[in-house]
Design goal:
Helix content is 77%, strand content 0%. By secondary structure, it is mainly α. The protein has one domain.
Length: 290
């Protein structure tokens, strides 16, 4: 739980730095430097564990994951400068909902009525935040939703890769592929950064790398249903950053929708863990856990 707490602070801090860095630089260039400095920060881990961590028989799948991931990242970085940080945090909770939908469509996983109800409730929470028909559609909110949907595809690929690849191998190939892929988009809007901007970029890369390491280790140390409730603090930290740095006050609809979405994702995680335990027990010939 402490590790996931660190991840929530890291992600919220990274989003605040993205907003600051994007005031002078195009979001695509900011995304490139996020990956570039992320690669620099992960290099010591590769040196410590040896470049054998890069050995893989699933290079095409790593490349596909990188292409999907960078697409989601570019959409997200484009949304951050034009969307309140609290809204971004609330809508980003929809990613697990899209993962469940993708797992059904692409992996053939079966969901029952309870998880379907949780999905419907979660997407209803997103509608509460966006309020189509009540207010003008916010392009930033739509970009965050689109990014979550695309990011869900990357998470499904990560799920497939995790069957054979270590977390370090997946993190290393993420940095290896995302840096050159994001540089293609950045090349069209390139503007040489100042030393101060490079400092912000380095801070952003540090926050992002630390957050991902804490997140991965948290789910290795404990069941997702145990630590996932802490992830709601991401909405708290993002709202605080938005208020203190950018004079943003999340409207009531953001809090209501965020709570509905988060509760839905938490229930989906609980049901998935329960079904997984029952499957393991059935294969072992033991009665399923109550």
């Amino acid at each position: 739980m402490l590790l996931l707490l660190g991840a929530t602070i890291g992600f919220a801090s990274m989003h605040a730095v993205i907003r600051i860095a994007s005031s002078e630089q195009h979001p695509f260039e900011v995304a490139f430097f996020r990956n570039f400095f992320g690669l620099i920060f992960i290099a010591p881990l590769l040196l410590r564990h040896g470049f054998g961590a890069l050995r893989t028989r699933r290079l095409p799948l790593h490349a596909a994951r990188g292409a999907v991931h960078v697409s989601a990242m570019l959409m997200f970085f484009f949304a951050v400068p034009i969307t309140p940080l609290g809204t971004i945090a609330a809508l980003s909770f929809t990613a697990p909902l899209f993962v469940t939908v993708g797992a059904v469509l692409l992996l053939g996983e079966v969901v029952r009525i309870r998880r379907i109800a949780a999905l419907v409730a979660g997407f209803a929470g997103a509608l509460v935040i966006i309020r189509p028909g009540m207010v003008a559609l916010d392009p930033g909110s739509l970009l965050v939703l689109g990014s979550s949907a695309v990011w869900a595809g990357a998470m499904i690929l990560i799920k497939l890769l995790s069957r054979t690849e270590s977390s370090l191998t997946m993190a290393a190939y993420m940095a290896v592929f995302l840096t050159p892929l994001s540089s293609i988009a950045a090349a069209f809007v390139w503007q040489w950064p100042s030393l101060e901007e490079l400092g912000w970029f380095a801070l952003m890369g540090g926050f992002g790398t630390l957050a991902h390491l804490c997140l991965g280790q948290a789910f290795r140390e404990a069941d997702a249903t145990v630590v996932l409730p802490v992830d709601f603090l991401r909405l708290i930290w993002s709202s605080l950053y938005g208020y203190l740095l950018f004079n943003e006050v999340p409207v009531l609809y953001v809090w209501i929708g965020g709570i509905v979405i988060f509760t839905s994702t938490l229930y989906l995680a609980y049901r998935e863990a329960k079904v997984a335990r029952a499957t393991v027990a059935a294969r072992a010939g033991a009665p399923p856990p109550s």
